[in-house]
Amino acid sequence: MKLFVFAFLISLNSLSDIGNLSLNSERSLYIVDGDSISLQMRIAGIDTPEIKQTCRKHANKVIDCGRLSKSYLQKLLKSIPGKIVIQPTDVDHYERILVRIFKGDTNIGKLMVESGMAFSYKETYRLEEDLAKSEKLGFWSFHTPPIEPYKWRKMGRH
Questions:
Q1: Residue 101: which of 29, 48, 13, 42 has the closest Cα?
Q2: Exposure pattern of 72-90 as b/e (b: 16+ CB <10 Å)?
Q3: Are 108 and 76 in contact (CB under 8 A)?
Q4: How far is CA 74 from CA 2, 85, 105, 112, 127, in A?
Q5: Dist. CA 126–CA 148, nearest whole Å
Q6: What is the reported pLDDT for 38?
Q7: pLDDT in tens, 54-110
Q8: Residue 61 β-bridge partners
Q9: Rounded to two decimals, what is the model's pTM?
Q10: Parallel, antiparallel, or unpaired: how do β-strands 97-103 and 41-43 relate?
């Protein structure tokens, strides 16, 4: 929670450089209590397995790839040295703030794809995804990697 609050404060500092952020609804706000809100943000350029999405690391072992991706992101944010910098880029159709997130000089979204723990959203990190696949990194080393999250969502499994 402290990491999130710190990241939120950094993002507010970044927002002051680009002006006010406008949202069409309160959908991206999480009401903490009567005088505290948090913003729901999405890392731009990547898509990761949903929390309930499974895959097979080994032929006989089903695992939760969504939770694995989440814990990998948490590990990156804790282990990479430097300050967290959040750069708002847009607002998506769910009213989530799209952001690029850096830890030190490291682009976290790009690193997630390079490590095989996220899919490129459209063509953003397609080269990095192709390289991770060819080197069998992360999910790409699994017996059955997760299906692309947008396909999983279309099947109504969210």
A1: 42
A2: bbeebeeeeeeebbbbbee
A3: yes
A4: 13, 15, 17, 11, 24
A5: 13
A6: 85
A7: 889 999 989 999 999 999 999 999 999 999 999 999 888 888 889 999 999 999 999
A8: 58
A9: 0.81
A10: parallel
3-class secondary structure per residue, the chain: CHHHHHHHHHHHHHHHHHCCCCCCCCCCEEEEECCEEEECEEECCEECCCCCCEEEEECCEEEEHHHHHHHHHHHHHHHCCCCEEEEEEEECCCCCEEEEEEECCEEHHHHHHHCCCCEECCCCCHHHHHHHHHCCCHHHHCCECCCCHHHHHHCCCC
The two structure tokens encoding residue 27:
């959908």
The first and second tokens of residue 30, run together, are 């999480």
Residue with tokens 């695992």: 63
Cα separation, 3 vs 52, in Å, equals 24
Among left, alpha and beta (phi > 0; psi -120 to 50; other), residue 121 is beta
53, 157 contact by CB (below 8 A): yes
